[in-house]
Amino acid sequence: MSLPEVFPLITDPFFYAVTIPAVLLLGVSKSGFGAGFGSLAVPMMALAVSVPQAAAILMPVLLVMDILGMAAFRKDFDLKLLRFLLPWGLLGIGVGTLLFKVLDAHLVAGLVGAFTLLFLAQRLLFPPQADSPPPPRWLGALLTATSGFTSFIAHAGGPPINAYIIPMRLSPVRFTATMAFFFFVINLSKWIPYAWLGLLDWRNMATSLVLLPLAPMGVWVGVRLARRISQKVFYRFLYTGMALTGLKLLWDALR
């Protein structure tokens, strides 16, 4: 019996050429540094496999990254904010589950990309003042539900929720910790729907196991940077990541 029959992972060299950088980038983003870059992982992998397959392969990798991120920032998250965010994020997961086979993943990615670029344009053209009030809760609910939905479709939940959280001007560590706990719950809630939709097959899981050692590498680099960078520079990287993410997602949809 040959190795592909016993351990049926993907063997295409091009797949690993685009996936290894994508997983490392996702790990750095999971740590909070350059948050937004992680949404590029699925579009990058989609150069070699389908969007649903890329999303399924990343599931175990995301689980490890989320656990590492929570361990690194376990004392720094905003519990009150999390209590507001999680129900709406889980609602988005439910909507994504129901619509997964109806909606085209690239169309959803394009909508996320367009929204991300509009948010950045608004922030740059009309920067908030020091005494600006935080975004209204109804907007937070809408954006968080959208984040759960786009996270389910293409692991692209970062841009919508960033649009709500960034104006709160949290410290880099508090921002990172809160997002780590939020996405741990969101990503954990995807496992049963993904299995129900038939995405967690043995070939995808075997491929994911090969990629798992990359998870702590990216998170470790990002955690060290997040704890040593100033708030001003942190948000510059955040905006850059969101800009590149928005452009890539929009390009994929238009292409």
Explain what the structure shows.
With 255 residues, the chain is mainly α. The protein is 73% helix and 0% strand. It has helices at residues 3-6, 13-30, 41-45, 51-72, 79-99, 105-125, 137-154, 158-165, 172-188, 191-196, 202-211, 214-226, 231-254. Helix 2 (13-30) runs parallel beside helix 4 and helix 5 (79-99) packs across helix 7 (137-154). It is globular. The mean pLDDT is 80.
Task: State the gist of this model.
The chain is mainly α and 255 residues long. The chain contains 13 helices and no strands.
Provide the helix percentage.
over 70%
Topology order in helix (H) and strand (E) letters: HHHHHHHHHHHHH
The secondary-structure class comes to mainly alpha
Largest sheet geometry: none
Detail the poorly predicted runs. none
The helix count comes to: 13
Strand content: under 5%
The best one-word shape is globular
Mean pLDDT: 80
Number of domains: 1
Strands, count: 0
Rg measurement, Å? 17 Å
Distance N to C terminus: 42 Å
Short descriptors:
single chain, 255 residues, mainly alpha, 13 helices, 73% helix
Please write out the topology:
Layout: H1 3-6, H2 13-30, H3 41-45, H4 51-72, H5 79-99, H6 105-125, H7 137-154, H8 158-165, H9 172-188, H10 191-196, H11 202-211, H12 214-226, H13 231-254
